[in-house]
Specification:
Elements lengths: L12 H13 L4 H7 L3 H4 L1 E4 L2 E4 L7 H13 L2 H9 L24 E2 L2 E2 L1 H20 L12 E5 L6 H9 L9 E5 L4 H8 L7 E6 L6 H18 L7 E5 L2 H7 L6 E3 L16 H7 L1 H20 L6 H15 L4 E6 L7 H13 L17 E4 L10 H6 L6 E8 L5 H20 L17 E8 L2 H22 L10 H10 L14 H12 L3 H5 L4
Bound molecules: 6-O-phosphono-beta-D-fructofuranose.
Amino acid sequence: MLFRSMPPSTHSPAWLALKSHQQTMEHASIAQLFETDPQRFAHFSVHLGGMLLDFSKNLVNHDTMHLLAELARERKLGERLRRLFSGGKVNTTENRAALHTALRSEQALVVDGVDVQPQIQAVLERMQKFSDGVRDGSIAGNNGRRYTDVLHIGIGGSHLGPLLATRALAPYATGGPRIHFISNIDMAALQRTLAPLAAATTLVIIVSKTFSTTETLANARAVLAWLKQGVGDTAGRQCVAITADTRRAADFGVGNDCIFPFWDWVGGRYSLWSAVGLPVALACGMAAFRDLLRGAHEMDEHFRNAAFEKSMPVVLAMLGIWYNNFFAAATQAILPYDESLALLPPYLQQLEMESNGKCVDEDGASVDCDTGMIVWGAAGTDAQHSFFQLLHQGTRLIPADFIAVCQPHHTVEEHHAILMANFFAQPAALMNGAPVVTNPHDRFPGNRPTNSLLLDRLTPHTLGQLLALYEHKVFVQSVIWGINPFDQPGVELGKRLAARIQPELDTNEPVTGYDSSTNGLIDFYKANRDARDRERGPQ
Ligand code: F6P
């Protein structure tokens, strides 16, 4: 039974009120709004634990925030939110719950007649025992040698979360194995990753919710062959699998006691909080992983209880709606001013764009408004020497989230001061701009909106808060647009066509079964891939 009482519409009262309000605000000046409200920073900020969200540098006033909250209420966000947390089938096309929140709540929750919490805790216990064993050496390679390295094989949500978390929490990685990631099918990536590794001291982790992803299984087969070459037929014992399809993992040859399960009600891009987060426990210890869960749970509780106007996820989400749907801003920049968060933009690209890149609503009707924004970005201050020219003087409205950490893990004050000075300066410059003095090329239009997120420190707890914040932002936007954020049918068409083309590459026969471009490209490839050319080596 579909939950929604009425399809979202761009003709609803709340939407039309915002449309009318936009005609006022499009002529507003953010700098002017500060002039008229000396307390603007305090009025347009939200604190949660060690996190501060400053959304005062946006093209909004109190009426805007009220009208955005009204739209959320009109879309019954409160009810949808409660349904998300209570195990409702919010993944409407796959008739599943989406319970990444249950993975970190430690609270009983009955789904399809079964309390899911005991099985969640059982997997956490297995993760605890396994990661403790690898870290103290009691779980070791076939010849008893401690695992010095972990080779993690996965892609998409089975890769980006563990990669981001282990990179962000590197200062906490003491006493554990080094974690190496392989995701792409390009053998160059695997060869580069395998080069420094010794099979005897390498633990292999194969992560795939479906255990059917072509790239992951092809890489896993190649790595198992490498492992066998190094340690012989007992290679399988140096391999664990993390999956929601344990039968496929067993059929692949992974021992049942080496399979960490998760569930179909955990979306791939929402799975870091499940056994998919095992690399964090291996690298940093299980206590760090549990802190990550606690941070995410703190954001969950904030999301469940805060008034919309003071809810970090709702504020971030509705500001995105404001620019996306009322100012036609197509993209949103994520700008972490912290090297440990350099992989946050690619993580959020999948989270936001694979969740909300939809043109059909939950009822199967075409949506009548723009949905998911294009998410991009890079770490500052590198980004300033790459695309900030366009942010400052380009012709486009590009809302940006600046993210920084007050206390770095290093102690070199001078460098942090330079980094933070830029973190403070850029949003101010984007907002205030600069008038033309003589040279028109020196004109900075300004009035370019940004959010600033400040964490006191980057810890497992605050990382958990940060990632859960964006998970809930994505959910809120999906409710406003009336789309299902928990499926990804759009990735299948290309995969099916690739599966049809691949066997055609086995011969040098010209192909004719596609459009002339695809035929021509394949024929050119076949004519130029001759192995003799490769013998000449790179030119
Ligand atoms: O990109 C499509 C997708 O299904 C993602 O949603 C998922 O995270 C990724 O591929 C990997 O899928 P699996 O974890 O099943 O290997």
